[in-house]
Each structure stands twice: as structure tokens, then as C-alpha cells.
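ok trying this again, last paste got cut off
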Amino acid sequence: MFTVDRLWPDPAAGLDLDAAYADLALPPPPASRPWVGLNMVTSLDGRAEWSAAADALGTKADRRLMRLLRVPYDAVAIGVGTLQKAGGWTDLPADLAAVRAAAGKAPLPLAVLIAGSGPIPTEGRWWGTEQPRLVVVGRDGPRQVAGAEVLVSPTDRPEPDWLLGALRERGIDSVLLEGGPTVNARFHAAGLIDELYWTVGPWLLGGAGLPMLASEPPSETPRPATLVSVHRHADELFLRYRLASAHD
């Protein structure tokens, strides 16, 4: 359906996008938590929002890539801000659900919503899928949310390390984060992002849109990364980086 050029490694032109990512394999998870990937699209200047809608930055090819990246992951997680602004969609089409089933996985990944102690929006695409849903709230958050299981954190808002430990106890070995920028920043500050899938859209925005990582105060915890692959579709780039362990 979509073609890409692989720029790194082993350059090749005119590859089918699905085939290029069909062998996406995840390493074994760390001993105490799931493997964590982060998938984001930004503008050329690193903005993750355009008119408060991240999906305006990517093309249909990028949205197909989002689905392809979900295939090997046990769970797909978003923050409540992303749900409020973009509606959220973390499911898979029938063809990719069949790929998961053929590999012995549940047809759809667990959908995880990371919230705090405020009300949970119950409208939007995230609620209209057949996925199992888990809403993770702070200790003063709602105990019941229609259409989802609720997991209550012992702190005001779920801390990344606690959340990953709780997911591991449920048999989840891999989690794909899909924003937003505040959730991304908290996982980064905790050293809990293992891989980054970054689509660079061909737009120079400027303005006040949030960056890929947004925290107050700004995090000063740089981590080195290794470039795994680069693909190009038209004028956008699909980048994959492996991050060094926070404890290296």
C-alpha cells in the first residue's frame, strides 16, 4: 500500500512499508519490568502538536506505521491528555490482528490509559474498540470507570516504575508509549524508555506547540542512543533508535 526507501542500514529503494517492518522483533525485557518503546511524530523543529492535534503532523503512511509498530507489543499506553486532545486510538485493523494471532499473541494489545486523580473522559475512539482496557489512576482517582478495569496507584499520579512493575505482574512484557509529551518526559526522566520510533514530518512549525518531551522543570537526564534504521516515505522520515540503559 505504501512504499519506503531504506536509507540505513543496507540502503534499498521502493520497499513495501509492511514488509520493511514485518520482522520488527523486541529484545527480551529487563528483569523487573517490560520493555518500553516510545512512538511519536514531530515537526522538523521537534513540535509534537499542531493545532492541538498530533495526527495532523503525519501522513497516512505514518498512521499505518503506527499500527505496524503495535504488532509486537503486549500493551499500548497513552496519557489522559492525549485522550482528551486527540481521542486516542490504540487498536489494530483486522489484517494486523491476524498477524498477532498467528504469532500466538492476543489479537489486540492491552490498551492502557495513564491518568491522575481527576475525572476520566469516557468518549472518543479509545473507548470504541474491542481491546481490553486498563485505566491507571492516582490514589484519589475514580475507583470505577465504565468499560475498563481500574488500577489505583499508591501516589497522587502513577509513577512510571510502579506502573511498569504492575504491568509486569499482569504478564505484560512490552509496552509501547504513544504520548503525550508529559508522559514521555516522566518515563524519560526515570530512564525507562528503551527504544524510540520517531517520525519527522516535513513541517517547520515554530509557535508554542509542546515538544516530544515536556516537563516542568525541564529534565536534564541525557541518554545516548544508537541509530537502528532510517526509512523515508516521500518527505517524511521514519527513525528508530535504541537507547542505552539508564544504568550503563
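PB: full thing came through this time. The chain has one domain: 3-12+34-231.
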